[in-house]
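Our consortium's second objective concerns turning raw sequence data into structural hypotheses that experimental partners can test. To show how far this objective has progressed, the report includes one record in full. It was chosen at random from the queue rather than selected for favorable results. The single chain below, 492 residues long, was entered without modification.
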Amino acid sequence: MNGVLKIGVLASTNGTDLASLIKFEKEGKLDARIALVLCNKECPAADKGRKAGIEALVVESKGKTREEFDELVAKELEKRGIELIVLIGYMRLLSTPFVRKYANKIINIHPSLLPDFPGMDLDVHSAVIKNGRKTSGCTLHFVDEGTDTGPIIIQKTVEVANDETPESLKKKIQPLEAIALLEGINAFSQGKIRVEGRKVLLSDANTSAVLLDGRKLSEKCLEESRKKLEKILVKEKPPVLQVILVGDDAASKVYVKMKKKACEKTGIAANIHHLGGNTSEKELIELVEEFNSDEKTTGLMIQLPLPKHIDTRRVLEKIRLEKDVDGLNPANLAKKFEKPGFVPATAKAVMRLIEETGVVLEGKNAAVMGRSVEVGVPVRELLVKKKCVVTTVHSKTENPKLATGSADILVVAIGRPNLVDASFVKSGAVVIDVGINKLDGKLVGDVDFNSVEKKAGFITPVPGGVGPMTISMLVENVVEAYENSLQNGLKA
């Protein structure tokens, strides 16, 4: 993790384990900083925090509903940029909104081997002895919406003697709780923890993420489009893509050449219409209308960006939906990509790369950094369609790491080189980098690849990730437009 992990401790009692964590931090054993001790009443834990020079805050819970109180707690945690919440003798049940907000970022130490014997200290130890168990211990687990039911991170065991009492068993287990907390927090800080459903996987911090090779997948998609086109092709009416380029943007020139090459490889005729940078908006719209009415034109796309004197939205609005193979007509987004519209090529590329991971999307937390009409907005809509819980992060978002750090799926499209490092990323997350920037003469993404690949589960490179896939998805849309035109009895 880039920077020191900030811990927030929620406590209500003596805080014995807190004292151990403070000691570990002073000894340099804790790969984190205890930034806040928050209690719902004055208690010894708050005193321990203050004596150690840690900010200790009391938020009174009396007279507040669980949801109201937890909302106040969340605000205090957000102000201090807390990245991991540790419950130590916290005598309150957390509300569902709070648990969901901090999914897989709240840990609790329990004084038995879960799932057996949930509950409180001496009651648990008494139950262990009463049931004749020969082994007990402690469990460090993530907190979910149940009581002591979250995914288990670490368990430590001790033998239960024949003459064991609840008090003596507690004394045996207490030191192990501190060690489990230390190991769990350090593993979280080092990016070694990966949660898959109810399972927690502890991995080597040096293990790299699986690389989502956009070039390789793009070739596969282009071949699928070629085979599909081969089956439906009417030789007298081949598919034709019209590409309009306005001005002399160097990157745009490269992109349209790549699109033409991919189309021709698939069997699609691609015509590039290069207009001067002083072309008026009226002249551009007239050309769009010409291709709209041209029966031989299957698809039409306008390479962005356009010169500043042209209203991009107004021009894109003129493209007929059935020919809008880049999916950028605003009406297409409003209709949520229903026919005759198309999913925007870049957003479709993002989703195809995510699907390639095999991760089940339903119920997953997703964060989309960036809210552009071309990428951020359609990606958000597509993830919502897959039943993800989606958060949009933008320049005005307070504490963006709070949203990205709990995201199983992170899509970054903000146009700022290497901004997103490992501290933004949940361990094991799928990270899709849409950005492409020039930095010191090299192409880089919005994601700091070298930092994030050590923590993510899957990651796209730049170049070679979303870029090639965007082109293959454009081609796929052209083939779909061609198929639609044949089915509708229109001349392509």
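The partners drew two points from this record. The chain has a mean pLDDT of 90. The chain is about 40% helix and 20% strand. Both points have been shared with the crystallography group to help prioritize constructs.
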